[in-house]
Fold this sequence. Notes:
By secondary structure, the protein is an alpha/beta fold. The chain contains ten helices and nine strands.
Amino acid sequence: MNYELLEGGIAKISLDNGKANAVSFELAEEFMVNLDRAEKEAKGVLITGHVGIFSAGFDLKVMATGPEAAQKMVGNGMLLLEKIYSHPLPIVVACEGHAVGMGVFLLLAADYRVGALGEFVLKLPETAIDMPFNETLRVLAKTHIDPKFHSRAIIQSEGYSASQAAKIGMLDEAVDAEQVQQTALAKLAELSGLPSARYKENKRFMRAKEIKEISESLHG
């Protein structure tokens, strides 16, 4: 992963883990360290991936090594989602390509999501790959995706273009590919200009029920 403090107090956290930007145990660990760092020195957080692909989800090579390694990796991924969802700073994602599985959940855990128009797919493939939803994933999916699309998007593993994803809640807006980061940074400038203490308070208040459900499922 890469961490950079941009002008205006924006922490840019970039996923960089091979072609697919797979979420491994180590990537989630480093991601959480970077989020803690941003909380101390930044006003807002921009999350990016590669041009063409934001993230294809969990590392399938780890999944194939056995249930113990897979469970450890997924568990750390859920802690990462919890940290993003409850983070006190505004978090905006610039999704410049495909997002699949855990890649979509990284979007859903953020405060605002900008996607790239083009031949890209956003998809929750859990049913299609015979993988269960845990409580963290269930909460994020049901909270953000339009209830009219729960069956198709969550249960039936239907894929969506960025423009479609913006209509059902996976994204907040879809723009031309070359404008994704610019649009995301403009939104971050707007959000980080709000009173920071009140932003934190209202964010956690509005998400209190969901944060509690996620926390109880992860920590007992």
